Amino acid sequence: MISPFGKGGARGIFCGSVERSNSAQFQIGTSMELQKLNVKFFVEQPNTIALTDFIEIFHSWIQATDGVYHDVADYSHMQAGPGIVLVANDANVSIDESGARRGLLFSQKARLAGSNQDKIRAVIRAALDNCRKLEAEPALRGKLRFAANEAVISLNDRLVGENSPATFDALKGDVEAVARQLFGGATVSVERDSESRRPLNLHVKSSAAIDLTKALANLQRN
After folding, report:
1. Into how many domains does the chain fold?
2. Which residues contact 101 (CB under 8 A, 6 or more apart)?
3. What is the domain range of residue 48?
4. Cβ-count burial of 59 within 10 angstroms (0-12 exposed, 13-18 middle, 19+ buried)?
5. Is residue 15 in some structural domain?
């Protein structure tokens, strides 16, 4: 069973409103403890699947689990919006269309243990697992593929780390280390979304092609 993370409705959506927390605010020179991480992997083009087709699929996931998932939120009426959101007690899994690019967004809300690299690695693995699960759905088989060589990692808590050059510098090393592992040692680029009003979005990309199975295998080697 794939265990997503998070209780709630459609909050915590990538590039949407930012959740607040009681966490200590990050200060330069202190260690940033990452929580509330989001990861989005993009769908390969062409993409001809109707967004509403994912509603029935996500409802089937609810029926197949013992309370892991408990709701589906439909935002298909919004252009370049949150899309279709599957809600669980520990995370949201959604087919997200923000930024006018469809992808699977995994929004972690429950606290994670370990180092920052451990947390980034865990959330990326969960996102890739759900990508692979969707690709294997009978109704989508052969119609849906996710690109594993590009992702957006978001910090969805401004009280921990605002979208600033200082926060980016503090986080970039951990993200690069995990990205190099994810992409099998290939050259990695990590860029920040410089729009300060948005959450801290780190765009991670490798020029080397890699499939989901290989990417997951790379992350197993800690």
Report:
1. 1
2. 42, 43
3. 37-220
4. middle
5. no
Contact 69, 133 (CB under 8 A): no
Pick from 48, 47, 218, 222: nearest CA to 147: 47
Q: Residue 158 falls within a domain, yes or no?
A: yes
Q: In the structure encoding, which two tokens stand for residue 27, read together?
A: 């200060």
Is residue 40 a contact partner of residue 151, using CB atoms and an 8 Å limit?
yes
- Residue 148, domain member (yes or no): yes
Judge if pTM exceeds 0.90.
Answer: no
Q: Which two tokens stand for residue 112?
A: 């994670």
Q: What mean pLDDT value characterizes the chain?
A: 84
pLDDT, tens digit, 9 for 90 and up, residues 155-174: 877 666 788 888 899 899 99
